[in-house]
Amino acid sequence: MITPGTSVSYWYCFKLLTENGDEILCPQPSYPLFDYIARLAGVYMRHYRLDEKRGWAIDLDHLENQITTGTRAIVLISPHNPTGMVASADELRELAEIATRHALPIISDEVFSEFLFGLDSFPRVSATDAPLVFTLNGFSKMFALPGMKIGWMAVSGDEALVKKSVAALELMSDTFLPVNEIAQFAAAEIFHRGAPFLTKYKDWVRRCRSAAVEALHDVSFTHPRGGFYVTVPIPRDEEEAAARLLKNDGILVHPGYFYDIAPDHLVMTFIDEPERVAGHFEKIATYSRAL
Q: Which of 15, 70, 83, 172 is deepest in the core (most CB within 10 A)?
């Protein structure tokens, strides 16, 4: 199913799977966008923990305990924004078992899946026995083309559930006709011509990530395994630290509470000119070394 970007894909899934007042399980830390989409869809967001002490791994026991009679789906974000966590194959198998026990679909956000560090392959929940999986992706991160507004959902799992879901999604899409034809016809050529760019792009992201991690070598934090972002704990007021970095050094970072991370943390991207990344992160590290 083609959509005008992953944000709309989420909205489609929420409207497909829920009625007003139902709940969706979402990881915490979380990206703020989901709360707004849920509000527009009339859905409540209920959160399950990512455990920082275990490299932001999914707390599967907590996730299952968060399931109620009103839960209608589980959101999985891997690679995760903003922690850089990539769920392991074992985690995904256990997540699929939970989804099967409770007859819940999984909405799997894979928009950062092209950008992996230290992994030979990317574990996908669609490769498990989960009853119903909606896998979301798009051009925004993959080819650095957010303005194209092209995304997609791949629906997999039990054949009857997939057939029913796709029929409903097609009705939604036909109602709004949201993806313009120029963008659709360009998609194949973007994949073709974009392949050499993507190779260079991924190498650039890897170099930026390496420079950031090296500059933070004496800081205790979880190294990102995917995506564009890193989350760093600090021993002081996160909002004050973010303000000082901006005012004194011209470096924009976010305080952790923007993402529902318990204080105190700083969240930032490591995407920049690689030769500038090390200097920036050395300054960021000064706010963490006393930890």
A: 83
Q: Which residue do the tokens 């989420």 mark?
A: 10
CA 72 to chain CA centroid, Å, is 19
The CA distance from 191 to 142, in Å, is 10
Distance CA 71, CA 22 (A): 6
Which residues does 59 contact at the CB level (< 8 Å), separation at least 6? 48, 49, 50, 51
At residue 196, what are phi and psi to the nearest 5 degrees?
A: -65, -35
pLDDT tens profile 40-58:
999 999 999 999 999 999 9
- Strand 23-28 to strand 2-3: parallel, antiparallel, or no bridges (unpaired)? unpaired
Same-domain status, 86 and 32: yes
The closest alpha carbon to 124, from 92, 81, 155, belongs to 92
List Cβ<8 Å contacts ≥24 apart for 159-168.
161/105, 161/131, 161/132, 162/132, 165/16, 165/105, 165/132, 165/134, 166/1, 168/16
Contact 270/84 with Cβ under 8 angstroms? no
Domain residues for the domain of 168 are 2-185
With bands split at pLDDT 50, 70 and 90, how would you rate the model's confidence at 214?
Answer: very high
Q: Where are the alpha helices (DSSP H) in the chain?
A: 6-17, 33-41, 60-66, 89-101, 139-142, 159-176, 181-215, 238-249, 274-285
> How far apart are alpha carbons 59 and 61 in whole angstroms?
6
- Looking at residue 158, the DSSP 8-state letter turns out to be S
Contact in structure between 150 and 179 (CB atoms under 8 Å): yes
**Does the reported pTM lie above 0.90?**
yes
Q: Which of 157, 185, 213 is the last residue of a domain?
A: 185
Residues 148 and 170 placed together within one structural domain of the fold: yes
- What does the radius of gyration of the chain's CA atoms come to, in whole angstroms? 19
How far apart (Å, rounded) are the C-alpha atoms in residues 67 and 74? Answer: 9
